[in-house]
Write a structure and sequence with these properties.
With about 280 residues, this protein is an alpha+beta fold. The chain has 2 domains: about 10-115; about 125-275, Alpha-Beta Plaits, CATH 3.30.70.270. It is about 60% helix and about 15% strand. It has helices at about 10-55, 55-65, 70-115, 125-145, 155-165, 165-185, 205-215, 245-265; strands spanning about 145-155, 190-195, 195-205, 220-225, 225-230, 235-240, 275. The longest helix is centred in the first third of the chain and has 48 residues, at about 70-115. It is elongated and about 110 Å long. Mean pLDDT is about 75; it is low at about 1-10 and about 270-285.
Length: about 280
């Protein structure tokens, strides 16, 4: 099978996110100190105002500290203003960092989607499929659950492109992907490997249940500018056996697929055709 080319998520993006988060937390920690100092200065200012309004206390403080209460009051007011300006600056800085972090996070999500999702069909791509397959193999090995890997290849897809053009081929891929997502379970994973090749991971699926999935999938008729394009597929599958590695599991399903295609060319079988008005807009299952 051909491997789709996907750009990995740049590590610099995640490093930038982490740096912004670190700066934000550092500023927020400093912000608590600023609030604490502001409260202390406000208490001193309150005490100075009370002293200023009580002449007897004012005289005692002047004698004890050798400083005029009015000068002390002026100094405290200056401190209050300085702390307030600093606090406002901190809040503005925090808000700006939070906006930058949200923007970076949005960009990271876009890059992650580009790295994991096929842009034409909306299905997951090969990169994500191999990660998920490794997880499912580990789970089946640990718990003994069945796991079936199903590979699909559209028949005569090149002829569709040659006869109707690549936009028609794109619509065929989109409608097939949509139809595929509709017939599998929520726990299953539909993947576009590249070109006209698809993969379905079917956890806890026996071979008997697999036949039900294939029966529901049937084949497809796509309406393209008044032309009915019949779409059929070939399939191959492999059920997990203890000790199978993910790459081996996929390779054996792939081998079964092409063995079936060769057999169909020698002895073509009639396939039931199922018409659909499937919405061409893809959705991931």
């Amino acid at each position: 099978m051909s491997d789709s080319q996907n750009s990995p998520l740049p590590s610099s993006v995640e490093a930038s996110d982490q740096e912004l988060t670190r700066q934000l937390r550092q500023i927020e920690r400093r912000d608590w100190w600023a609030w604490g100092y502001s409260i202390l200065v406000m208490l001193l200012l309150t005490f100075a105002v009370i002293s200023f309004s009580l002449p007897a206390l004012q005289q005692e403080l002047k004698t004890f500290f050798n400083v005029k209460v009015s000068d002390a009051l002026f100094g405290l007011i200056v401190l209050v203003v300085v702390f307030n300006v600093y606090t406002i600056y901190q809040q503005v800085l925090i808000k700006r960092l939070r906006l930058q972090l949200a923007e970076k996070h949005g960009h990271s999500e876009i890059l992650r989607n580009l790295a994991m999702v096929d842009p034409l069909t909306g299905l997951y791509n090969r990169r994500f499929a191999m990660q998920r397959l490794a997880s499912e193999v580990a789970r089946s090995e640990r718990r003994g659950h069945p796991l079936t890997v199903l590979t699909l290849d559209l028949n005569d897809f090149k002829q569709i492109n040659d006869m109707h053009g690549h936009p028609a081929g794109d619509q065929v891929l989109q409608e097939f992907a949509t139809h595929l997502n509709r017939v599998i379970r929520g726990s299953d994973l539909a993947v576009r490997l590249g070109g006209d090749e698809f993969l379905v991971l079917l956890p806890e699926c026996t071979l008997e249940q697999l036949q039900l999935v294939l029966g529901r999938l049937g084949s497809l008729v796509v309406d393209w500018q008044g032309h009915k394009i019949p779409v059929t597929f070939s399939s191959g599958w492999r059920q997990y056996q203890l000790g199978d590695r993910p790459e081996e599991l996929l390779a054996r399903a792939d081998q079964a697929l092409y063995a079936g295609k060769r057999a169909n060319k020698k002895a073509p079988a009639l396939a039931k055709t199922v018409e659909t008005d499937a919405d061409p807009t893809p959705h991931r299952g």
